[in-house]
Amino acid sequence: MRENEYTPEEVQAILKRAVELDDHRERFSRDELLAMARELGLSEEAVLAAEQDVRPTGKAAELAQARQEFIAERRQEFKQHLVAYVCVNAFLFVINLLTAPDFWWFIFPLLGWGMGLAMQAFEVSQTEGPKFEDAFEHWYTRRYVKKRLKRTAVSLIERAVDSLALPSDSTDTHK
């Protein structure tokens, strides 16, 4: 390869790094993106197809957003469990120290609970693979069903309220 020729991978890496170094630009418009692509000899169709891969829309975008929410929720739950683990085991340590300083019994719940917490940490760190997909699918289905049930309940309540509405006093029968 000659000195002034680059592979597509090198071009991609060089341009990516140049954009990182030229940090005065935070965003580019679609027109600017297409103009850059034309200068590089790329077809508009190829750029638009790549855009769909990078920035999904519709159902794909909804699923991508839901995945991020699922990951964030799992991490939040882990943090809550970690705080409980530290607080409870610190309390058990103090009780052990005050009641039976010769026998360190607090180590047993510390280790048992710690193994469970370690397994949860491993599970939370996984953001792809079949187990992750199964857990996400289960979470997403539960969330969808809850939303659907909530909408149905609201609709039923609205109908019930409407049917119980008192008739207007336009025909007064108590004369």
UniProtKB/TrEMBL annotation:
Q: Does the keyword Transmembrane apply?
A: yes
InterPro entries for the chain: 2TM_dom (IPR025698)
Q: Does the keyword Membrane apply?
A: yes
**What keywords is this UniProt entry annotated with?**
Membrane, Transmembrane, Transmembrane helix
Q: Which domain of life is it from?
A: Bacteria
Ranges that cross the membrane: 82-98
What Pfam families does the entry give? Answer: 2TM
Record domain 2TM: where: 67-143
Under which name does UniProt file this protein?
Answer: 2TM domain-containing protein
